Amino acid sequence: MGFHEVRFPTNLSFGSVGGPERRTEIVTLVNGFEERNSLWAHSRRRYDAGVALRSLDDVEALLAFFEARRGQLFGFRWKDWADFRSCAPAGLPGARDQIIGTGDGTTRVFALSKTYRSGGQSYVRPVVKPVAGTVKVALAGVAQQESVQFSVDTTTGLVTFATAPAAGVEISAGFEFDVPVRFDTDSIQISMASFHSGEVPSVPVMEVRV
Q1: What is the maximum span of the chain, computed from C-alpha positions, in angstroms?
Q2: In angstroms, rounded to a whole number, what is the distance separating the alpha carbons of residues 46 and 204?
Q3: Rounded to whole angstroms, how far apart are CA atoms 23 and 31?
Q4: What Rg value do the Cα atoms of the chain yield, rounded?
Q5: Collapsing DSSP states into helix, strand and coil, what is residue 59?
Q6: Residue 202 pairs with which residues in a beta bridge?
Q7: What pLDDT is recorded for position 15?
Q8: Those residues with Cβ within 8 angstroms of residue 8's Cβ, 6 or more apart along the chain or in another chain
Q9: Measured between alpha carbons, how far is 141 from 147 in angstroms, rounded to an integer?
Q10: What is the pLDDT of residue 115?
């Protein structure tokens, strides 16, 4: 799958609408009870970038970005302003935000992830597009130095240690991240008259698996 490691302009994504969706199959039995089955292990996010456009310059920037991606052909990075940090939205990422693994004395590569918890239940979301320069890592609570004790691949979300963490050592990380997406349309229709009167085009964007 083609993917461009470039972020959709953040001034255009700010104000967009969207969020996660899941695919659940529901069968109602003759006794009125239901059987429910989740078809996806992970949720998929959808957004509409059109509602964030505020000026003709925004329209021009959108068109340039759309054409450079060849419509739906190439994926790109998207900043979800409601959920782009390993910590609370108002906080700053810290090296102990998320537990991403436990050392075994052999494994050197660990994948970034974010855990969502509510009511005793949890969901672990893979993070594959961390933002360069924001990733912090700790071993047993002790901060590690990037490029010396570990490296991070910002295209995959994999953290590689220079030396495998010892058995039983808790590995944690903090970071900012983007969502891998693509346009969900091969056409954008813009009416200059309606745009001036307050109407904006629909520009659907959807998360992709990478």
Answers
A1: 65
A2: 7
A3: 24
A4: 20
A5: helix
A6: none
A7: 87
A8: 49, 65, 76, 77, 78, 79, 181, 205
A9: 18
A10: 98
The answer to whether residues 9 and 65 touch, using CB atoms and an 8 Å cutoff, is yes
The alpha-helical segments, DSSP class H, found in 46-172 are 56-68
Q: How far, in Å, CA of 177 to CA of 161, rounded?
A: 20
3-state SS class at 194:
helix
DSSP-assigned beta bridge partners for residue 21: 44
Q: Which two tokens stand for residue 175?
A: 């970071």
pLDDT number for residue 56 = 80
List, in sequence order, every beta strand (DSSP E) within the chain. 3-7, 17-21, 24-28, 34-38, 44-48, 75-78, 98-102, 109-111, 113-118, 121-126, 136-139, 142-143, 150-153, 158-161, 170-174, 179-183, 204-207
CA distance 114 to 15: 24
Q: Look at the block and give the residue holding tokens 């998360």.
A: 207
The first and second tokens of residue 40, run together, are 């996806």
Question: Which structure tokens are listed for 191?
Answer: 């009416």
In the DSSP assignment, the letter for residue 50 is G
Give the separation between CA 139 and CA 148, rounded to whole angstroms: 14
Global pTM reads 0.92
Q: What is the mean pLDDT of each run of 10 residues along the chain (210 residues)?
A: 94 92 94 93 93 81 94 97 94 97 98 97 97 98 97 98 98 98 91 60 92
Q: Which two tokens stand for residue 96?
A: 């102990």
